[in-house]
Amino acid sequence: MVTRRELLLGAGAAAVAGGGGIWAHRSRRGSMEAYNAAVAAMRRRPALAPQTLDLIRYASLAANGHNTQPWLFRPDGDGITILADLQRRTPMVDPDDHHLYVSLGCAAENLALAAGAAGRAGAMSFDPVGDGSVRFHYGTGKGGDQALFEAIPRRQSTRADYDGSGVEAGDLRQLRAAASVPGVALILVSERPAMARLRDLILAANAAQMGDPAFVAELKRWLRFSPNAALRRGDGLFSAASGQPPLPESLGPWLFDRVFTVKAETARYARQIASAAGIAVFAGAEADPAHWVQVGRACQRFALQATALGLSCSFLNQPVEVPEFRADLAALVGLPGRRPDIVLRFGRGTPLPFSARRPLAAVIL
């Protein structure tokens, strides 16, 4: 979702990998086989109805900015409270914690769907004056959308080229219906001229971000280059999850500094937008944490419905993250005066390796 930046390795990285230099360090970087097995175990559905720990695991599989997983869960007999983990903020890309609260909303929606599948369908509330927590109160009986629940372990931000095909009108209606959440507007853009105008804005905002050394330094801290590092940390943006070869941790930062360029990023994002079927823009009715949580819920439901339909998604949040581009984005999608919250491309793509998650012991209070 909420933003996960691609690692640009490009032809230079492929040449290093092909020459055998990277693979000589396999023992230090770990194997993708072991990584994929470990991540699959994190996403495996329980054999029985989900219990409390299973509900939290489902919630933790939600989309979130930079894969920081900025949440903590406090279960009790009546429900589960989701709190912001402020130690995992990203103040350069998200100075007002907008993405953090959107991430909490994504987790809350997964939790609600999982609880409904477990026969504990309940209600959600947000505390705007206390600690800014999201509270899920258990109910009784089944509830929610079973197809969305079943899509939770399969959803991912697929940061690769799609096949360029369109999405049928019936599928677009299902996406729109799934993302219908009070206080959230959704604009679907699937006509090529309008997508091209959005592309130009996204590329301009991306160039502005890349010109900010503080943004780049923060992004670099959340990059994970090897399977071992991605599993050990359980968070961050793993290069293989963007379709790039895994690298030894000693080599990854060095190569990143040399290939992360405006020209290469511009070409990659332009190609990925051209290959998409459409772009979804979400905007809350107000620019405050309560509505950002609602945006997260809508965004997560959209992504889960896309997964259920065999579609892929990934985030293009640059014009949301750079303040001077927000008004232009709002005007382009017909929402003047509103603050756009999430930009998401969708289409048909081949799944990539999943991102890791932190162990439950690290996120439960």
Question: Can you put this structure into words, describing what you see?
Answer:
By secondary structure, the protein is α+β, with helices and mostly antiparallel strands. The chain has helices at residues 10-18, 26-29, 32-42, 52-60, 98-117, 146-151, 169-178, 192-210, 213-221, 227-233, 252-259, 262-274, 289-308, 318-321, 326-332; strands at 71-76, 79-84, 123-126, 134-137, 184-189, 223-224, 237-238, 278-284, 312-315, 340-347. The chain is globular, with a radius of gyration of 19 Å. 49% of the residues are buried. Residues 2-24 have low confidence and may be disordered.
Describe what is shown at a glance:
This protein is of the alpha+beta class and 365 residues long. It has one domain (10-362): 3-Layer(aba) Sandwich (NADH Oxidase), CATH 3.40.109.
Features of this protein?
4-stranded antiparallel β-sheet, single chain, 43% helix, alpha+beta, NADH Oxidase
